[in-house]
Amino acid sequence: MSTPQASSRTSLRTALAGLLITALAAVPVYAWFTQDVYALTLFGRILAFGLAALGLNLALGFGGMVSLGHAMYIGLGAYAVGILSSLGLHSGWLHMATAVLVTVVIAAPLGWVALRTQGIAFIMITLAFAQLFYYVFVSLKAFGGDDGISLQQLSDFDFLTGNKFAMYVSLLITVLLALWVLQHVVASRFGLVLRATKANDRRVQALGARSLPYRITAYVISAVLCALAGFFLANLTGFVSPAMMTWAVSGELIVMVLLGGMGSVFGPLVGAFALLLTEEGLKLLTERWPMILGPLIVLIVIYLKRGLWGLLEER
Asked: What pTM does this model have?
């Protein structure tokens, strides 16, 4: 039986989540009337990185898999758009299907190899593969190399062609669907076993459950969400670059998860919102904004161990 305090916290979290979603939904309306395309791009980046952070959180927050290579999947999703567009193939469904298929083909065996290790070995394997793909795309001079690719045409969905407003709305709907799916996945038997493997993998196996298939599945799902984030990011910015898949971007995703609340479904979206908006605000104030942002994030992670979203539960 829930206590009045627990019901109050749940109501507060629901209200704040609804407020954040409403604010994100109002962005294209504001941009339409003011013709402020920058706002659409900025909050589109927040949603895209929020989607990627939601994916990473399934592996990191619920499965305990510390990956420094998830930015690689953002890059794969973005390059599915960039490369196919440069070849004259503009179908949005083809771009999206290619991003998902390539990601699954790469993430499944990579996860199978990496998840047979633990701790620092897993981190280094994911980092090594991410750096490998980074240098592969840097060497592709036919597709921009280190300079990247400027899209001549966005993904063609007929009703979405060249329309960043519709693309933003589609991204918002995708994020909402991801939240709904992840909520049900975490609450399912699959989620229960996944969380148990994070707590003690050996005990899970001692009870007769094979943990590796659960962990690989979670890893692949998280990679696919990152690839979809890359697909939308390429269409919103109109640009694809190997810089999207560097280890630094993977580090930013981890910060978003920790900042928002690792192991909470909605927390990573809050973390992406807080980090990118704070970063943008500090850039307006000073050129030395990293010297302020870095210590600020460290203090938040140290003193708010459950993140900004977890703070509501503690209160």
From this structure: 0.92
Is residue 265 situated within a structural domain? no
pLDDT digits (tens, 9 = 90+) for 266-281: 989 999 998 999 888 8
Domain annotation covers residue 298: no
Query: What are the pLDDT digits (tens) for 195-237?
Result: 888 887 777 777 777 888 899 999 999 999 999 999 999 998 8
206 part of a folded domain: yes
CA 220 to chain centre: 13
* Cα 147 to Cα 256: distance, rounded to the nearest angstrom: 27
CA atoms of 242 and 71, how far apart (whole Å): 10
CA–CA separation, 224 and 227 (whole Å): 5
For residue 263, the tally of other CB atoms under 10 A from its CB is 20
Half-sphere exposure of 70 (CA within 13 A, CB side): 33
Is 70 exposed, middle or buried (CB count within 10 Å of its CB: 0-12, 13-18, 19+)? Answer: buried
- Tokens linked to 306: 């459950």
Range of 238's domain? 15-247
Min mean pLDDT across 124-133, 134-143, 298-307 is at 298-307
- List of residues 6+ apart from 291 with CB closer than 8 A: none
Q: What is d(CA 185, CA 87) in angstroms, rounded to the nearest whole number?
A: 38
Q: Looking at the 3D structure of the chain, how many domains does it have?
A: 1
